[in-house]
Amino acid sequence: MPRIKGTLPILNNIAVLRAQKNITQEELAEAIGITRATIIAIEKGSYNPSLELAFRLSRYFHTGIEKMFSIKGE
């Protein structure tokens, strides 16, 4: 099995999903029980959510985690 070193460059499309639902960062944050600052950080790519938070987002948007998050270049 190959070793993975360093941090993975994780991309997300939370802003796109949010726009498709026509909701604000504040509305999304309130719906899943986090702060707007956390949503901003996730969308900017400066914070990668925990697995639990990724599942909360997945349930909210009715989509798989793999459709919300990807590794740059893959």
Structure report:
The structure is a single chain. The radius of gyration is 13 Å and the shape is globular. The two termini are 18 Å apart. α2 (25-32) crosses α3. It is mostly helical and 74 residues long. The protein has a two-stranded antiparallel sheet. The longest helix has 11 residues, at 51-61. It has helices spanning 14-21, 25-32, 36-44, 51-61, 65-68; strands at 10-12, 69-71. The protein has a domain at 20-64: Orthogonal Bundle (434 Repressor (Amino-terminal Domain)). Helix content is 54%, strand content 8%. The mean pLDDT is 92.
Spell the H/E element sequence: EHHHHHE
- Shape estimate: globular
Tell me which CATH architecture of one domain applies here: Orthogonal Bundle
Radius of gyration: 13 Å
The CATH superfamily of one domain is known as lambda repressor-like DNA-binding domains
* CATH third-level topology of one domain: 434 Repressor (Amino-terminal Domain)
Count every beta strand, where a strand is a DSSP E run of 2 or more residues. Answer: 2
How would you name the oligomeric state of the polypeptide chains in this document?
A: single chain
